Amino acid sequence: LDAGTVTLTASNKNWMLPLAGGIAIAVGDDSYGALGAALTLAFVHSDVSASVADTADVQGTGSLIVSAKDVTEVISVAADLAVTSGDAGIAASVTSVNLSPSVQASIGGVDNFDGSVYLQATQITHVIDVAGTVGGADSAGIGVSGANINIPARTVQASIDSDADVDARSQGGAVSDPLGPNDPVQNPLVRGVHLGANTTDILYAIAAGLGAASSAGIAGSVAVITTGTTTDLTEAFIDDSAEVDSDDKVTVSAKARFTTTMITGVVGVASTAGIGAACTVLVRDGTVQAYIGPNA
User: Fold this and answer.
1) Alpha-carbon distances, residue 209 vs 132, 252, 262, 265 (angstroms)
2) By the 8 A CB rule, do 146 and 36 touch?
């Protein structure tokens, strides 16, 4: 393939709003109790890839730009109310978001350009997970809630493959990510050979419970966030035996940003016994690496 500037982009965006709610009310002389439950479950797997094949021969008078990007945004809410004049009001709510994205930008073969060679892989996750319950009764009011965010397996990778032959003469104007923000600080112009892999997580897990009764008010809540229980890899690399020539800079960069807010709260109210328990659990395991192979 002979051309001026060659641009390959692959982009995916998920936006989801799972909602679940329940109301159980039993009032009267014959009321025994009220039971309510709310549940939301979300499972998302994204596979986004932009690549030049190992057998390709691509040449151009401009630049080669390869960019892959995945964005997942979720707001998940589960809420439940169970109130009775009878013996027991029991309310439970659980919300769970499970994500496993894969994002890859790679080049192989022969790639000769008068301009620059630019590769970028980006994955962004923004989740708000909220669960709440109210349980009220004459004898025992029970409210239990749980919020869970799980990213067990993720790969974000920008690479020049083994045995690739890349020549960037770095002439002409600088280039940036066509899928990136219109901000020169976050998406700067570069010249030469650039490989970047970026991961951003902004996660909120919130759970609250209320149990109220004349005898026993029992409330419990838990918020759990886990990442990388199988693998969570953000990497940029020039593979072994690749040949890369640049008349300007060669940049290999991998970055991961993780921001989370976890809130749990309970209220147990009764004239005899009020019981409340709240817990947050965070398990994070990830690898971020940038490297050049030994024989590149």
Assistant:
1) 6, 48, 15, 7
2) no
**Residue 258 reports pLDDT greater than 90:** yes
Nearest residue to 171 (alpha-carbon basis) of 281, 282, 62: 62
**How far, in Å, CA of 278 to CA of 95, rounded?**
16
Instruction: Convert the pLDDT of each residue in 115-172 to its tens digit.
Output: 999 999 999 999 999 999 999 988 899 999 999 999 999 999 999 998 889 999 988 8
29-49 pLDDT, tens per residue? 777 888 899 999 999 999 999
pLDDT of 253 reads: 96
The average pLDDT across 167-182 equals: 90
Alpha-carbon distance of 208 to 15, in angstroms, equals 25
Q: What's the whole-model pTM score?
A: 0.91
Look at the chain and count its residues. Answer: 296
Tell me the C-alpha distance between 37 and 34, whole Å: 10
Residue 210, C-beta contacts closer than 8 angstroms, at least 6 positions apart: 133, 134, 135, 136, 141, 143, 217, 219, 266, 267, 268, 269
CA distance 149 to 225: 5
